[in-house]
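fold-stage: in
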Amino acid sequence: MKPSVSTIAQTYEPMTYAQQREEEQHASEVLAWASEQTGVPGLSLIFVRGMTSCMGKAQGSTMSVRLSWDLWLRATPEKRRNTLIHEASHLVDYHRAGQRWRRGGGGQRLIHDRVWKQIMRSLGEAPSRCHSVDTTGLKRSRRPRRERAVALTFAPPTTLKVGDVVVFGRENGEKTKGRITRLTSRQATISQIGSRGKRRHYPEGTIWKVSPALCRKVD
C-alpha cells in the first residue's frame, strides 16, 4: 500500500514545529516506500530553506533528495508526492545506469529520458519535469540554508564498518577499490587503494565520499 505523502493542506502560512515534524515523517515514508519498491537502498531526505526556484533536487553522489520547504508548503499533497517520486526516480536511474550518466559543468546531469519515465510510472506517478507551484513573494537565497537530514522509516541494515576494503561505483559503471575511513548511515568516506582512471588520473590515497549503497565489501 502506498503511504500518504501529506496530511497538511496547501498553505501560505508558516507551520508549527509539530506540523513540520509530521510532514517530514510522511515524506520519509514515501521515499522509504520507493526504496523498497525499486530495491535501491540508501536513499536519504533533506529539507532546505531558501531554495525557491526548484521544489526538489536529486544528488546521485550521496543518494539524497533535497526538498524546498518554501515550495513544499505551497504545493498540493498530490504535487508533493509527485516531486518526491520524481527525484527518487532519478536516484534509482543513477544507481542502475552506470555509464549512461554523464558529467556536466555542475556535476551529474539529470536525464528525463524513457528509462526515468518508466521508473516514475512503475511507482504510480505521471512523469513531469517542472512544478507549477506559485512562487509569488518568495526571495531566492544565494546560499540556501541546509536543514537537518530526515531519518527514513525504512533503513536497510549495513554490514560495512570502518576499516573494511570495498569496491564502489554504480551498477554498470567503473569500480574503484578503497578502504573505509569514516562511515555514517548516509555517507562512506573511502581512501582509494591503487591508482585508477583513463581520461583523468586518480592517485592512491584519493578520498571519495559516496553512499554506502554504492559499496560492496571485498576480501
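fold-stage: in (second)
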Amino acid sequence: MGVRGVGGAPSLARGVGRGAASAAGGSPRAGLPLPASRLIHVGQVSHRRVRGRARDALTAVGQMIFDQGMVALEPGTPGEVHTPLDFAPLPGSLSRDLFGETLIAAHLDQLAAAQLGDGGWVFNWQAWSQAAEREWRGVVTVDALHLLRANGR
C-alpha cells in the first residue's frame, strides 16, 4: 500500500524529521519529563564519537518510559499519547532496541492506515484554534510522510 502525498499527489516530503514540530512553534512533546524528552533525541544519535555515551544514557533512562507509562505500545491508542515511533522513528536508531521491529512495524502500519482521504494526517493533541489545527496538520503530515519513507513504506 503506497502513501499518497497531500491531495492525493505523490509524496515529495523529505528531510523534515519529527523535529519539525519544534520549528513550527511549540512541541507536542512538551509534556514529557526532561529525561524522556531527551531520550527522544538520544535514541536517534548516529555519530560514532557520541554513540557510546548515547547508548549509556538510553540504558539509564530507557526503562523509565515503560515504568511510568510514557509510551502507548498498542497501535491506535486514542488520546494524547506518545508511540514507539516518537522515540524510535528511524531505522538504525539506538532506541529501536527498546521496542523491537515487530512493534515498530505495527505502529508504522497504523500510521499508514491513519492517512485521511485528503492525503493528510491529524494529530492527537488539542487544537487551540482552526489556524493552529491547519498548521499542525501540515507539520504532522510532512512528518508522517518522511517517517514512512525513511522506513521503506
